[in-house]
Specification:
Order of helices and strands of chain B: HHHHHHHHH
Number of helices of chain A: 7
Strand content of chain A: 25-35%
Radius of gyration of chain B: 18 Å
Shape of chain A: globular
Number of domains of chain A: 1
Radius of gyration of chain A: 17 Å
Strand content of chain B: under 5%
Largest sheet of chain B: none
Largest sheet of chain A: 5 strands, parallel
CATH architecture of chain A: 3-Layer(aba) Sandwich
Shape of chain B: elongated
Number of domains of chain B: 1
Strand order of the largest sheet of chain A: 6-7-8-3-9
CATH class of chain A: Alpha Beta
Distance between the termini of chain B: 28 Å
Number of strands of chain A: 9
Structural class of chain A: alpha/beta
Distance between the termini of chain A: 14 Å
Structural class of chain B: mainly alpha
Order of helices and strands of chain A: EEEHEEHEHHHHEHEE
Oligomer: heterodimer
Chain lengths: 212, 225
């Protein structure tokens, strides 16, 4: 793990402990993440990667410890934190009966952003879904759905990305696309925490955290 | 504030749109409601005096069961496809978003029952004054059923088989609504004043609108953690 540097750290995990059922997944887990840093969370199935990401996103509460974003515990400033964070879970949060355009429009509005159809169509084209913006999400393939979910990353300027398996179901071009997105995000001083079962190749530095 | 209103309306619109894209499912609770009520004259007795006497209870119990039946889907699909997670991660206050969801649910399941009630009142040969009160009691009572039910659904949404538990949780809470509503309708049929019961129902609704969204929001956070 990198050396702690509280001044530069934007996202801090402080002594996190997670218990699922009777099992202790991890305890006393701490790390700092500064602007422009990417963190890959690694570990076997069931090691608690998703649990950690959900705790970081504020969806679950850790049994011990806290998550601090820009000097404030996220539990205390939920609205501000949510406005600066994108969480992409296992399920994309897409409604199968709505089109990608409608799904993204709602997501943007809920996120407090302006839902601009041109911007959404453009983002969808960038992720390779040109012409699919009005098709029901139901008919899209798993990879296309994942791309739809990923296009959120293009539509929001949130500095923190929390991505659970962003490479799932993507083809090689999709993988390259996500890597480019991550590179660009890091260049702009964004932060990302992600899990993946595939090697993550990014041009910048990639820190890793192994859950045993 | 503007973004909150926009989020509220967008969520309401989406839920209504989804409901109308599943027109078949939309009609299920309503058909259920109709069936229970129409079975009574066949099953109990076609005697007009008896029907008139039991009509308020029959219609209200049917409305209650239909509401229960329709509630299951309030958060289920959102939970399964991950959009509930995204709702919880919205910077907008969750209780307000919950109101949008419950309102959409009431518009597609509760409101049709209110509109259908006069017809059912006639079917069970209720006097016209009682039908009016029946509609009023349903108009005040069914939103309350949706609100109370939402708390139960939010608590059980994380469970695979929450159906029975949901019933056990919320049916007792429905009982006061049932008692006041049916007593209002019976009183109207007997020519007695009904303002008291209706005001009480309205007070319960005011309490429900202000408190239930907070309970639902907290329950959702617990269910998803």
């Amino acid at each position: 793990m990198g050396k702690p540097s509280p001044d530069a750290a934007e996202l801090q995990a402080q002594g996190l402990e997670c218990i699922r059922g009777d099992r202790l997944l991890f305890c006393d887990l701490s790390f700092d993440l500064a602007a422009g840093e990417l963190l890959a969370v690694e570990g076997a199935n069931g090691a608690g990667k998703t649990s950690l990401l959900r705790i970081l996103a504020g969806l679950s509460l850790p049994s011990e410890g806290s998550v601090v974003w820009r000097g404030h515990a996220i539990a205390r400033r939920r609205a501000e934190y949510c406005a600066e964070m994108i969480y992409l879970g296992h399920q994309g949060g897409l409604k199968m009966d709505l089109s990608p355009l409608e799904n993204l429009r709602l997501w943007l509005t809920l996120a407090g952003l302006e839902a601009n159809d041109d911007a959404i169509t453009h983002a969808l084209a960038t992720v390779g879904l040109d012409g699919y913006q009005d098709a029901p999400t139901r008919i899209l393939s798993a990879g296309q759905r994942q791309r739809t979910a990923l296009s959120r990353l293009l539509l929001s300027a949130a500095p923190l990305w929390i991505l659970d398996e962003p490479f799932t179901a993507l083809d090689t071009r999709g993988l390259t696309l996500v890597r480019q997105l991550l590179d660009r995000h890091a260049d702009r001083g964004g932060l990302a925490v992600l899990t993946s079962h595939q090697p993550i190749e990014v041009s910048g530095p990639l820190r890793s955290l192994v859950l045993a | 504030m503007d973004s909150l209103v926009a989020a509220f309306l967008a969520l309401l619109r989406r839920d209504l749109m989804l409901a109308f894209r599943h027109r078949g499912e939309l009609a299920n609770p309503l058909i259920f409601f109709l069936m229970i009520v129409t079975l009574y004259p066949l099953g109990v007795s076609p005697d007009v005096n008896l029907l008139r006497q039991i009509a308020p209870g029959v219609i209200w119990i049917a409305a209650l069961l239909a509401a229960l039946f329709s509630l299951e889907n309030l958060f289920r699909t959102d939970f399964d496809d991950g959009s509930l997670e995204q709702l919880l991660l919205s910077p907008q206050p969750l209780p307000i978003l919950v109101i949008a969801k419950v309102l959409a649910h009431w518009l597609v399941s509760g409101l049709p029952m209110v509109l259908l009630a006069p017809l059912l009142g006639l079917l069970l040969s209720m006097p016209a004054t009682a039908v009016k009160v029946l509609v009023a009691s349903l108009a005040i009572g069914t939103p309350l059923l949706s609100l109370i039910g939402a708390v139960g659904v939010a608590l059980t949404v994380g469970l695979r088989r929450g159906g029975l538990l949901l019933t056990l949780l919320i049916l007792p809470l429905y009982i006061p609504v049932l008692i006041f509503a049916t007593s209002a309708v019976s009183a109207a049929a007997a020519g007695l004043p009904v303002a008291g019961q209706l005001y009480l129902l309205a007070a319960l609704l005011a309490l429900g609108v202000t408190l239930a969204p907070f309970a639902v929001a907290a329950a959702l956070r617990i269910s998803l953690s």
